[in-house]
Amino acid sequence: MRLVNIFRLRLRSLIFRRRVEQELAEEFQYHLEREIQANIALGMPAEDARRLALTSLEGLEQRKEECRDVRALNLIENTMQDLRYAIRSLARNPGFGLLIVTVMALGIGANTAVFSVVDAVLLKPLAYPEPDRMVALSSALNRGDKSKLVTLPDFQDWHDQSSAFRAMACYRSSQSPVMAGTDTEYVRVARVSAEFFQVLEMRPAIGRLFSAEEQRSGDSATALIGYTYWRSHFGGDPGVLGKTIRVSGDSLAIIGVLPPGFHFPDDTDVWIPLDPVDRTLQRTSFAFLAIARLKPNMSIQQAQGQLKSVATRLERQFPDSNKGRTVEVTGMLDEMVGGVRLTLYLIFGAVGMVLLIACANVATLLLSKATARSREIAIRAAVGAGRGRIVRQLIVENLLLAFIAGAAGLIVATGGTHALIALAPADVPRLAEAAADRRVLLFTCGVSLVSSLLFGLVPALYASRVALNEGLKQGGSRAVVGGRADWLRGGLVTVEVALAVVLLAGAGLLLKSFAALHNVALGFRPQSVLLMKASLPVSGPDGDIRARIFFRQLLSSISSLPGVSAAGATMGPPGHVESAGSYWIDHLPQPTVFQGQNAVFSVVTPGTFQALGIPLKRGRDFRWADSASAPFTAVINETLAREQFPNQDPIGRTIFAGFDSFDPMRIVGIVGDVRQWGPARKPDPEIYMPYEQHPGAGSALSVVVRTSGPPEALSGTLRRMVHDASANVPVKFTTMEASLNEDVAAPRFRSFLLALLAALSLGLAIAGVYGVTAYAVSQRSNEIGLRMALGATRGNVVRLVIKQGLGVAAVGMTVGIACSLAAASLMRSLLFEVQPSDPMTFLGVAVLLGLVVLTAGYVPARRASRLDPLSTLRQD
After folding, report:
1. Do 537 and 246 contact (CB within 8 A), yes or no?
2. Could you tell me how far CA 734 lies from the centroid of its own chain?
3. Residues spanned by the domain of 58
4. At 289, is the secondary structure helix, strand, or coil?
5. What pLDDT does residue 74 have?
6. What are the counts of helices (DSSP H) followed by strands (DSSP E) for the chain?
7. Where do the H-state alpha helices sit in 539-648?
8. Among 208, 185, 213, CA closest to 197
9. pLDDT per residue over 199-208, tens digit each?
10. Is residue 523 part of a domain?
11. Cα separation of 495 and 552, whole Å?
């Protein structure tokens, strides 16, 4: 109750200040009058009675001040005075304020922009009910290898033999041809199992979900569409239920529209049940992703224990396919962001270092400003201002600058966030949710407050220690620059240089890694290759035959075009593996689900090797005669030949693959290795199979065309050619080089950003070195003049000044390299063919920093060498 009364009193004193002041004056006047009347009653003259009354009160105004202090009015009033003075001071010297605001706005803006992305991707919970209970299930081997993909039979056993989950589901998604109306286009379609929407606890905005019968049969001809797709393709028509769309040639009735913002997985627009073909896949077919929702009071560790027991039973029951195979349970958010977590935290740490460098830079500027204000501070101290009062004044000025910089930084962050979203790889999850929301605004305010304390508190404390006698002299500006202040200024610049070295070393390692990744031998020639994805919407028992005829005729027509040197088609172009699994040499063990060695499976048409520039090492290429009625053939890569046929001739040997059949295939050729998983991974064993013999590849192929001119120029011709052959075939064009750029999007993104931040930090650090050197020259002008008067040459003066700057930089460089070696080990997983302690990178950083420090120190050194000795010696 007492605290409430105190709060009410202080609030009333603040809001009704004039009334409270009047009441205070009337109260003291009342006590004064009573004291005067009491003295007069004792026989004193009125004048003496008044003098004695005032004396007894020990100063009327002092007593009023004590009452104001009790009500905390003085603190508020003084703070407002400090704020008004800070505004006037900033208006008198706008250039200095603009410099500080600009430096801090860059640091705060960069931190806010990156935080908005980190918050959206890593920190915000998933937009589902109880997201912490959602998990992802992955296949794993006892030796530590992990695959996000699972087999449908394994998943079904996990579902039936565990009790830790409220719901479990598997799914897979792909770009498929979808016709809504008269146009066919590529749309992301997800095939989902029965409990998919139970795991996500998602209800449709319109209509209903799949029924149990529709999920079991797999051929119910129904579909769910996304809210965005409903608005864009059906105009938001509430009567959409019952209308049909065609997905890969199948006519499906729309039974529901899912809520706005729901696109799981992978920006999906159409959801359909698993089809019958999916349900026939073997335990060697890793083709699905799996998710589940934990039951209440069930932890991830308990669920992991249950599924591990199930996996152990499956290993005993199916030793040929499940030997050494287990299952891993991971939080859904952790599974989604695992691939980008380290990159985002690396960038977040880098912008944090930039902010620290900016704070150190501003602190050196404020120390210099405190020098210029030493006389003002000394006068304040002389007239009674305590050290705390002076510090508070300076802190208020710093807070004003910080929050102006925070507001400017928020503007910088808005543009920076848009730039980050544009530059980031397309597969970063939830990136589109990054925005300047309430959490980001709170972060900006917090960063502004903390940064104001970082760059303002220490200079304010040093400035408040001014020596009065020295400060009131004309030359008293040096009262705050000697001793510990000089040491502090040099220490701040040392910190700037050390942090800049850490960022430069990290950027150097990533850039060298990216260069190695960019220059690695891919095994094919991506230049001048046009990539066209085409899907023939076919259905029915003869759909595969019609698809093969369509692509054979299309490739024949393309090959005859002027400027086309070769044309082919593949199930998945290099960098986009569509299938992988086990294979066996010469004989197929029993049962046929035996787990053999793993290889990449690629289905291609004749002409594909020539179009991609994959060299044929031995044997022959595929021919159109390698049809479904001919003996099955295969071409292997050099890695498989080297591993399975050391010092032998593979041509003519038999190989089996668990792709779409276990029919024996005769090896007819060997081609060079291709980095099918992307530039960062060494080639795996690979088996190429002719498209005519493997209709399981489906009706969607990527056509590759090698041209003699710019490949983009051919896209219009190919589009017309496909449309003339079949008006319902959607096509999508890119180049092979553009496709490969997607594979290096993540390393390019982090390399570019860290290099940009390193360049910014280098500029700030050099500005710090320049500022300290220039200031030292101004303070040592008398000494330099005396040296020159005694015979020192200009070269001696230049070396003297540069030596001081190099000394500060050398200490920072030493500390920075030591910290860089420790920090670089955390980046090991992000580097390609580069060691974290790469000596050339660190040598390059040292040389670069040394050169720019010399340049930064030479300007003030040259100015110092041109001082007139007589003029400087006349100064006090």
Report:
1. yes
2. 26
3. 2-71
4. strand
5. 52
6. 29, 22
7. 543-559, 608-612, 638-644
8. 208
9. 999 999 999 9
10. no
11. 67
Cα-Cα-Cα-Cα dihedral sign, residues 491, 492, 495, 500 = negative
Percent of the chain with pLDDT over 90: 24
Residues 501 and 549 in one domain: no
For residue 474, tell me if it sits in a domain: yes
What would the pLDDT profile of 708-725 be if each residue is shown by its tens digit?
989 988 999 999 998 888
Residues 20 and 53 reside in one and the same domain: yes
Residue 649 DSSP SS3: coil
- Give residues with Cβ within 8 angstroms of 767, minimum separation 6: 361, 856
- Which one is predicted more confidently, 587 or 136? 136
Class of residue 393 by CB neighbours under 10 A (exposed 0-12, middle 13-18, buried 19+): buried
CA distances from 598 to 121, 319, 382 (A): 34, 17, 84
Residue 124 lies in a domain: no
DSSP 658: S
Residue 385 within a domain: yes
Is 60 exceeded by the pLDDT of residue 33? Answer: yes
List the single range of 7-16, 218-227, 369-378, 638-647 with lowest mean pLDDT: 7-16
Q: Please tell me the chain's helix, strand, coil percentages from 3-state DSSP, rounded to the nearest 5.
A: 55, 15, 25
244 Cβ contact partners less than 8 Å away, ≥ 6 residues apart? 251, 252, 253, 254
Shared domain check, 252 and 352: no
Mean pLDDT check: name the lowest of 80-94, 104-118, 284-298. Answer: 80-94
Q: Which residue has the tokens 């950027």?
A: 507
Contact 132, 293 (CB under 8 A): no
pLDDT level of residue 226 (50, 70, 90 thresholds): very high
Q: Residues 505-514: pLDDT tens digits?
A: 999 999 999 8
